Amino acid sequence: MIHYSLSCDNGHAFDGWFSGSDDFDRQVESGLLTCPVCNSASITKGLMAPQVSTARKQEQRKTALVDKAQREALEKLKQAVTEIRANSEDVGARFPEEARKIHYGEAEKRGIIGEAKSEEVRDLLEEGIEIMPLPTLPEDKN
User: Fold this and answer.
1) Which end of the chain lies in a sparser environment, N or C, as judged by fewer CB atoms within 10 Å?
2) Which InterPro entries has this protein been placed in (predicted)?
3) Residues 47, 90: Cα–Cα separation, whole Å
């Protein structure tokens, strides 16, 4: 993989990874490579210093990629939980009862969140009621 510093004709700078120099050229020629900011297809490579790879640098890169992936995954999870909470009714300890009412058509279909004991969760699942726990996020513990 080759890492290039790139810029568009509007001066936006960004990075790109390519399987080789010919891969970069092919993507530019076919118009597949565009600026993530303004969508311009006029892309050029910037000046770059060669990078010497050592075992230590490779391990640091692997760790950084894992850390970055974990941070990105946690951020997506936080966004999903925030959206679920914003679009659901919190029924608290009445969760098992409300979930059953919705499942059996006795109450309007809507998103709900709340609390249930492990035995109640098991019973709901055995009845075929689809439920899912919301994850406890690090900031929830503070």
Assistant:
1) C
2) DUF1178 (IPR009562)
3) 55
Question: Residues with Cβ < 8 Å from 137, sequence gap 6 or more?
Answer: 74, 77, 78, 81
How far apart, in whole angstroms, are the C-alpha atoms of residue 39 and residue 17? 18
Percent residues over pLDDT 70 in the chain: 90
91: closest CA among 107, 72, 74, 67? 107
Q: What is the pLDDT of residues 121-140, one digit of tens each?
A: 999 999 999 999 988 777 77
Contact 88, 131 (CB under 8 A): no
What residue type is assigned to position 28 of the chain?
Answer: V
Helices 118-126, 95-103: inter-axial angle, 10-degree rounding: 10
Neighbours of 139 (CB within 10 A): 7
As given in the structure block, the two tokens for residue 52 are: 């010497």
Residue 132: count other Cβ atoms within 10 Å of its Cβ.
Answer: 6
Q: Which of 8-17, 33-42, 44-53, 86-95 has the lowest mean pLDDT?
A: 44-53
Quick one: residue 122, left, alpha or beta (phi over 0 = left, psi -120 to 50 = alpha)?
A: alpha
